[in-house]
Known about the structure:
By secondary structure, the chain is mainly alpha-helical. 72% of the residues lie in helices and 0% in strands. Helix 1 packs across helix 13.
Amino acid sequence: MLYSIxxxxxxxxxxxxxxxxxxxxxxQTWVLGAAGVDIFFVISGVVITLSTxxxxxxxxFLARRATRIYPFYWLATAFFILFTWYAWDSIPTWxxxxxxxxxxxxxxxxxxxxxxxxxxxxxxxxFYVVFGVLLALKVRQVAxxxxxxxxxxxxxxxxxxxxxxxxYFENNIVLEFAAGVVIxxxxxxxxxxxxxxxTKCVMVAVAIFVITPQPDYSRELQWGLPAALLVFGFIxxxxxxxxxxxxISLLGDASYAIYLTHITIMQFMGEAFAxxxxxxxxYPLFAIPLxxxxxxxxxxxxxVMIEKPMLLKLRNLTATVLARRARVRTSSLASx
Length: 336
């Protein structure tokens, strides 16, 4: 994993926390926070490309990705449901819960999973499935082929089955994953920018974010493009010594836990203060720093104490099961 990418993973998660804090406790949305998701998507394209070797077994790839996504997501969703039931006596329908548990999108509708920050995982899983299918088919140049498929999904108007005419799959945001794949391919092939040009890429990216309060016609262009410029420019600072610290690696690793727990923690804080007669929205200068720092620090602790050991055990279990299957398959072939 690139140290620069680890840093950007944390920054993206932190920006999302910042966005929801200002949205919930100051009734406004800070643009760079909302665009943290787009940075995440570009990073995902980079990470999957760099970590997936040609010829990698599809079962191994998909098992690792499922292990990374689902278990902690289920845990985060369970805590959110318990909180909303206790605080607001709110319980999701079993249909919505079932779709949410397995992250099954309802095509043609703008509906979110029970734990709404997980809407991004719909697109993550689509990207993983494309990679997994290409690996299963033993396609050469998996990463490049995935870019072509992403372009097709974004451009083609594919009607949603069993829906009224005029309802199409909306997959334009997959272009951000494709941008990440292209960045990773450039990196693998040794394409490097000068430090001066890389700095300009980062500066232009930040400037575009700042002057685009809300994408009014194309999120993929108005936020996806600067996200790609930011990632592409920043990986050229990989040699900076401060990026190589254990803290940066830890923060990057904790980004998923921070992202998936911050809403529950933030809403719990609001309710806890309300139970004691304090409405946090009335004190934004106090509420915003508090609801940024606490969810970030708690999310970091959850990663260290829960997510990291759980992921290690699940990956070891997955590796053991896949190795056993491979041995059985080899023995079966040898006996024929």
